[in-house]
Design a protein that fits this description.
about 130 residues, mainly alpha
Length: about 130
């Protein structure tokens, strides 16, 4: 008799391996993901340097995650569009522009959060 829990667990483990593979593929091949990961790492170092609060850490980590997630989805949409229609097409360009535009919302939101977090620390460093 087949144990349902075994197949469920195997399915979850297989799913985790696909997510890890996808993350490593993004980090190895996509310059925008690499760049944003480095910026995220710099922000993490800045968080330790300035001793930001737990709440500030939560917002910073969520912001970094939002940027990486949005860029990953943007990349996936662009890859699907390029696969479907490799040559330039007005409608494909429109779809890619919309996907890229979503990054503008994510980046703007995260920049506002980062300004709110770091402005007081930077102001204090400059004044003292």
């Amino acid at each position: 008799m087949k144990n349902v829990n075994d197949s469920f667990l195997k399915g979850r483990l297989k799913s985790l391996s696909y997510t890890a593979k996808g993350a490593f593929m993004l980090l190895k091949t996509e310059h925008s993901i690499i760049t944003q990961s480095v910026i995220g790492l710099v922000l993490m170092i800045a968080g330790f340097y300035f001793g930001i609060s737990k709440i500030e850490w939560m917002f910073q980590v969520l912001g970094i995650g939002l940027i990486l997630t949005a860029e990953s989805l943007n990349t996936a949409i662009e890859k699907v569009c390029d696969f479907i229609h490799p040559e330039y097409h007005k409608k494909i360009g429109f779809i890619k522009d919309i996907a890229s535009g979503a990054m503008t919302f994510a980046v703007t939101s995260v920049l506002i959060v980062l300004i709110i977090i770091y402005y007081p620390y930077l102001y204090e460093k400059i004044i003292s």
